[in-house]
Amino acid sequence: MNALVAAAKKEGQLNVITLPATWANYGTIMKDFTAKYGIKITDANPEGSSGQEIAAVESLKGQSRAPDVVDVGSAFAVEGANDHLWAPYKVATWNDIPADAKDANGDWYGDYGGYVAIGYNPAKVHPAPTSFASLTNPAYKNMIVLNNSPTTASAAFSAVYAAALANGGSLSNIDPGIKYFAHLKAIGNFVPTSTGGITTVQNGTTPIIIWWDYLLASEVVPVVKGFKIVIPSDASYAAYYDQAISATAPDPAAARLWEEYLYSTTGQNLWLEGFARPIELPTLSAAGTVNKAALAALPPAPSGTVTFPTEAQQNAAEAVVSANWTKQVG
Amino acid sequence: MTGSAAQAVAPEALTSGARPSGVSTSLRRSLRWLGVVPFGVYVALGLIVPTIAIAIGAFQNTDTGAWTLDNIKLATGGDYLPGLRNSVLLSIASAVVPGIFGLLIAYAIHTAKRGKLLRQIVVTASGVFANFGGVPLAFLFIATLSTTGVVTGWITDLTHFKIWNHGFTLYDPLGIFVVYMYFQIPLMVLVILPALEGLRPAWREAAHNMGARTWQYWRYVGGPVLFPAFLGCVLLLFGSAFSAYATAEALDNTIALTPIQIGALENGNVLAGQEHTGYALGLFMVVIIAVVMIIYTILQRRAARWLR
């Protein structure tokens, strides 16, 4: 570890990509890392997407401004591994990361995530929604939105996956989720607008939004007074983003030190303070090192272990949603 | 999304050469060509190179680069062909309707008596409206006309009629069409006005002196002269609507439109590794625009007979 710190300090800089300062507490995390190790961080394209991260790794290869590390949706982590874009690396706490949330070879590893949740403004929504089934209540006419199209945004895609679980589907069968939203739109409850997340929630047009619990907590709660978050009782679907180190990283030591920092107790708790559930949360809770105040801001996690879709299931579900969303719901 | 009006007039400006001033003819001729070079480079980098890259990429595997027809096959499956149909229909409607309205408005301010101030106000306002688009435009309509919108509230207060309970919605293709009018009509006013100003009053006077009625003047003189310009402007509007993207997606994320589908393939967070299917869809759009351009050229050539 000391040798790694020395080598990283010698490089003196780290290129990250698409990390918004307000997302999962990255602003604080980057500042703290720089203060601790004296390594300057350049954050390219903070509002970009996973697809753009992969494109940057490929197109900037060999340049000093190429990304060293990425934080991508799981489909993109797998795609990058297939294209040999990542350098395998196992952090010190490797064993605390659940086996189905990491690549056995160390190419990529889950970092933080959360549950699909229903957020609502209690001042405008009566009665309080509790489940996907409850959202068909006629009282919610013209009220429910997703943050974006499920063919574009992984959060909205996950909402469809969760809805499938609540309606007799499974990780291998997302179709009931699409049918659910088609029904929700037919009865007028689901509004297919998406101005980029919270705008129409904030101005009151659509007071119910299905999104990640951690994004509801970090993006909506601060701007909508009394906003409530509930994990639907009929479906618990969780997903995690993944970390990976670029195989062609211009600053390979700083990249590895960054990963060690993120998977330290400090890094994990900083994510939690940004309302993201860090992957090693169960270990932190058991060891008593978790920041309890930060944990309390999130809705309690459902009991039982979460299962994640396999790569094959995920790809199949993505293909089904891409082919059928506009056809069935539109 | 809009704003290609300026480019439309550029080539003519470039080809009218400088005045002779004792320099030899051949040197003058080569200097004349030199003036076109920046525009040529611009067209090559901004249009020709990307088009070729898309045309080649559409037939290559996203990962390996091997030649394949899979992208074309994928791009004709799923909801992609209905998306193309929706895009074309929406664009035709969003070109023809504002084309007619824009022409009438432009004609009104062109012929208005003491209309100089009016003209200036309309042109300036049109310049602003024509360049307003994207998610902010969608939100402007949501803030005014959604269930909790300001104007919706006024209508309810005044008439006790809740429009949203009687089938009105912003979040469907008709809603998108209405929102497109916001920038398409002003765009039409801006681009057709110079053509209207090109109609010389002397032609009309001459026609009337020879006993033509107003409809005859339009049928045999004004219409034929104006027609190529009108067609060109409608085509510009078609292109503007055909490539529009963010406004439509913000209003209705359940409608299949080709630009949105390309966005999901290239930039999205869900589908990974299908970028070249997006190239294939892009190629379809290029082909459609090419067909429209060819029809336009043929029609214009016929119409231009009157101007020879």
Essential attributes:
heterodimer, A: 330 residues, alpha+beta, 7-stranded mixed β-sheet, two-stranded parallel ribbon, 9 strands, 14% strand, B: 308 residues, mainly alpha, MetI-like fold, 2 domains, 0% strand, disordered N terminus
How many runs of DSSP E, i.e. beta strands of chain A?
9
- Approximate helicity band of chain B: over 70%
Number of helices of chain A: 13
> Which percent bin holds the helix content of chain A?
25-40%
| Rg measurement of chain B, Å | 24 Å
Number of helices of chain B: 13
Shape of chain B: globular
Instruction: List the secondary-structure elements of chain B in sequence, H or E.
Output: HHHHHHHHHHHHH
Task: Briefly note the structural class of the backbone of chain A.
Answer: alpha+beta
Description:
The complex is a heterodimer of chains A (330) and B (308). Chain A is built from 13 helices and nine strands. Chain A has helices spanning 2-11, 26-37, 50-59, 74-82, 154-166, 175-186, 199-202, 213-220, 252-262, 265-273, 281-287, 292-296, 311-329, and strands spanning 13-17, 40-44, 69-72, 109-120, 144-146, 208-212, 228-230, 238-245, 277-278. In chain A, strands 3, 4, 5, 6, 7, 8 and 9 form a seven-stranded mixed sheet that branches. In chain A, β1, α2 (26-37) and β2 form a beta-alpha-beta unit. In chain A, α1 (2-11) crosses α9 (252-262), α5 (154-166) crosses α6 (175-186) and α6 (175-186) packs parallel to α13. Chain B is mostly helical and 308 residues long. Chain B has two domains: 2-57; 74-306, MetI-like (MetI-like fold, Orthogonal Bundle), CATH 1.10.3720. Chain B has helices spanning 5-15, 25-57, 70-75, 80-111, 116-130, 134-145, 150-159, 173-197, 201-209, 214-243, 246-251, 258-267, 275-304. The longest helix of chain B is centred in the N-terminal third of the chain and has 33 residues, at 25-57. The two termini of chain B are 35 Å apart. Chain A binds chain B through residues 49-52, 54, 73, 75-76, 78-79, 82-83, 142, 146, 148-154, 156-157, 185, 191-196, 199-200, 203-205, 318-319, 321-327, 329-330, and chain B through 63, 77-79, 82-83, 135, 138-139, 142-143, 146-149, 164, 170-171, 249-256, 260-261, 263-264, 266-273, 275.
